[in-house]
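Shift notes (night). Ran Short-chain dehydrogenase while the centrifuge was going.
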Amino acid sequence: MKSVNDRVVLVTGANRGIGKSIVEGFFKAGASKIYAAVRKPETLESMVRTYGDRLVPLRIDLHDPDSIIAAAKVATDVEIVINNAGMLNIANPMASNAVVAMQDEMEVNVYGLMRMAQAFAPILKANGGGALVQLNSVASIKNFADFATYSASKAAAYSITQGLRDMLKDQGTQVVSVHPGPIATDMAASAGLGDLAEPAELVPQCIIAAIESGEFHAYPDTMAKQVGSAYQDFAKNIVEADLMAG
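Came back to this:
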């Protein structure tokens, strides 16, 4: 896929933070229609007033597999799926709530991704391949002890994203793994990263560039680019390489 212009897009977690910025960025880039997928569609009223019928509210709760299946029956024309929705619990490995926190994060950040891929990959295939974009975070590469369970869940999501890249290649679906650092959102503020946070619009800009260039990894902000620069050789020679080839 060389351009996002005139494409039909679906964005989970679309009503605030990075998700809302992705909607705004993709409309600026020429997307023809965006399914704004959220747990509570009524939270999209102001966005509907802004974009009119180009924005289609859709209920998806990554805790609720049936909501994903139902949404896939509606968004049958989608060409780019951006799985942005996720959750962060602040728990270090020794915290009394660490196991419960990680179970919840795995349900959303990992199993939610898998359910989204299973529901929408056939639709992307039917519509020419398209792209599946997963928001994974720098925490998927480097564990941060104060929110270690979140980091671990994102590492698992990143691993699944790699598997999806290989599985969906034959049907012509591009998979993009996005690894933001601190971005100015409520999630970053709750994690105590507000002083390091950079503007959310960097994320859609980076996603669009990755889709247009065919890149698998995308690093939007300063911290992400630092991690990506150090990680680049391993990513190209191991993660993106076909180690099973003879």
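Strands lie at 8-12, 33-38, 55-59, 80-83, 131-135, 174-178, 217-218. The radius of gyration is 17 Å.
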